[in-house]
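Entry type: protein chain
Record version: 2
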Amino acid sequence: MTVAFLKTHKTAGTTVQNILFRFAERHNLTVALPHPSCEHQFCYPRNFSAHFVHPATRPPHVLASHLRFDRAELQRLMPPGTVYVTILREPAAMFESLFSYYNQYCPAFRRVPNASLEAFLRAPEAYYRAGEHFAMFAHNTLAYDLGGDNERSPRDDAAYLAGLIRQVEEVFSLVMIAEYFDESLVLLRRLLAWDLDDVLYARLNSRAASSRLAAIPAALARAARAWNALDAGLYDHFNATFWRRVARAGRACVEREARELREARERLLRRCFGEEPVLRPAAQIRTKQLQPWQPSRKVDIMGYDLPSGRAGPATEACLKLAMPEVQYSSYLLRKQKRRGGVRIRPEPVLDNPPPRPIRALPRGHLGH
């Protein structure tokens, strides 16, 4: 019942967050949410501080919003016995997603002619400036999110990578792998002693096919891994430990349970979104609460819509299943304020326009 999820960037973390939000709401658990000055992230990219948590959401049972990991501050906030989990993604695929999603926010990406990932990876030092605003999105983002120094290179200092791995292993009971999402959820369910229904999901915050590379050429993938060598070292280690964990649990058992999860998920999606549930562009989603935030005109983030004419508790559950992060965070904050007797404005929660995904912070506030 007490879970801290380190939501890393572009790793399917929003889908995991939604699973945790819905579990918390069903069981009337308190979810730690950011103070309004931090918007819907815990003042990322600054080092996490318990002061960034809205007082109406303390003490929490669940934490699942973006932050830069700080072990001491999180342990100060979360109760003893909290289970810590996170998720990693293959670094080349993750970097392609970061480059696309944050192209208008990260100066290193904005400098690249024609927004070309290939041009950036051909000579990243020509565009990248360490310590620059949002530089962490352009270099070893996983290491940064985990509280590490994203400027270190395992080629120059192998001991640093080994030390960072040890620190992660000391804290996190499970490191999930985005490429094996359903298998990861099986391990998460077993770790937390949840039911299979507790980890059913709808894909959230995913890009349209037109906004991503269908396949990353091998040379480009090698260049992305070389530039993000610290992330590559983290991923390779935890991918290996993930499969050792699957083997201990019984690979055939995990695969059978993952298959059951997929079948149950398909039934749920059909029940909620029609016999042929499809991800839609935001412009085609009539339900305002389900319209995902769009990072730029060049990137289409997809979502689900509810069939017209539905109402009742089942529809409410379907709404939450597909609700984007910004709207769900706002809704939960208002709900927890009411529970705590905090006075709030009377306007509808879910009609608030989504804020920008990242709060612009003054230079020099990266919290290295």
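Comment: The radius of gyration is 20 Å.
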